[in-house]
Amino acid sequence: MTDFVLDGLPALSRSTVDRADAARGDVELLAKGWKEAGLVVIDERGRARLVDDALHLGRTSDLGEAPVDGAVFLGVQDEVAYWAVRGSGPEDPGSGDWQDLRMCGALLSDTDAGLMTAAVGLLAWHDHSNFCARCGSPTKAVRAGWARRCTGCGHEEYPRTDPAVICLVHDGDAHVLLARQPVWPAERYSVLAGFVEVGESLEACVEREVGEEVGVAVRSVRYLGSQPWPFPRSLMVGFSALADRDAPLVLAEDEIEHAKWVHRDEVRAAFAAGGAIPGLGLPGASSIAHRMLAAWANVQL
Question: At the fourth CATH level, which superfamily is domain 161-297?
Fold first, then answer.
């Protein structure tokens, strides 16, 4: 099964809301839409409150008559505006009502997935962008939260996305190469991934990262799809590639704890068992890795 395609969008790539770029600088229009807008509240851990696997939307009117400092504009759908703010969740981190995207992303509707993914990523960017990269002066949010302007030199900065590749390496037949990091839960395995370096193409990054992590040369690198991964600001760009199964595996010290070739039947069995069998736990359903493995194994999600 050399050729395969993703059978649907990755969980966090789904979105239906119009981001309405033209509205971001229209103060009057934003204020008008604020009064009846839906409000996504994200706590310091990146969690939102869910009710029956749906985002619980607060009321912007509870915050004031116009957009408040720290609020970010997410877009418009069916003439309803959506905003997000940083708020407080419950003190108990195990509360079932508040979940992060890793846990709930695949459960959300297309609309909710897009809203929460944008909210988490945008608010995290603001948290770490309070000072100008050029002169060090404080910055302030402008354009409804989609830019920050330096109060000293006037330089504007925009939300940053760090590209990373994620590659499903297989042998062109019935085996896929999976690996695990030492910090992951026991027996959890996934496909290989790494950040793109300066001056590097995506395809070159695939070749370099696979070589660095498991010592295997790949060929026939092919694009599959992409997914935002706002932890805090990544874009995962998915690929497949071929490798020789008899090539020795040389693991990156302190980064890869174990790697192995896994037969398609084992991957299918793990999916059928809800995501794990003894010796093999699959990546969570919110990740693009989950959808990539399902497509390669020809499992309908």
Answer: Nucleoside Triphosphate Pyrophosphohydrolase (3.90.79.10)
